[in-house]
Amino acid sequence: MSAGEPTVRRGVTTGGDASGGVTVVVLAGGTSRRFGSDKLAAPLQGRTVLDAVLHSLPADWPLVVVGPVREVTRPVAWAREDPPGGGPLAGVVAGLEVVRTPLVAVAAGDMPYAGPALVTLVGVLRTAPPEVDAVVATDSHGVANPLLAAYRVDAVRAVVPRPATNRPAKLLLEVAHVEVTVSGPAGRDVDTPSDLKALEQLKDLQDRVGPT
Asked: Per the confidence metrics, is the pTM higher than 0.70?
């Protein structure tokens, strides 16, 4: 992962305390239609894809998983979007109902190596000026991913629509934010079995040669 010079994007701002605790909301309510089976249960380096996400995160960060309850090997709280299958923005809203910290980090459940990226994004938000309410990952092409990001909870609650069912996740970009480039396995998701194989190979290569 590499962090570039943050790019400021203005939006709704609420201020808030940047030094408080953080909870991670992991979105796990998708249908895995392109994968052909439950991709979050697919094996990856001795774990499931979902467990890989959870174990990539700091042990002292509370975790909320939004989706159907399943076996995981790390303690989590469970939430469910209403109605089920209502999309990732609805999943974020459902997860926020469980969050009791001033900061929330968001990751998709099919991003098994997202943990280091979230640590970086949360660190940037904790030291950001009060007018910055989020830190959002972008890929190497500068495309922002609101589902790999850290937010001040009050700012997200101020912008998300109610109901949020089937509304676009890019509405989260209305929060005043900075953008940080995330590259390598930390920024990659899994849509197909070939994606999973390629990502595992990329992670193996990175582990052998170190981050670039």
From this structure: yes
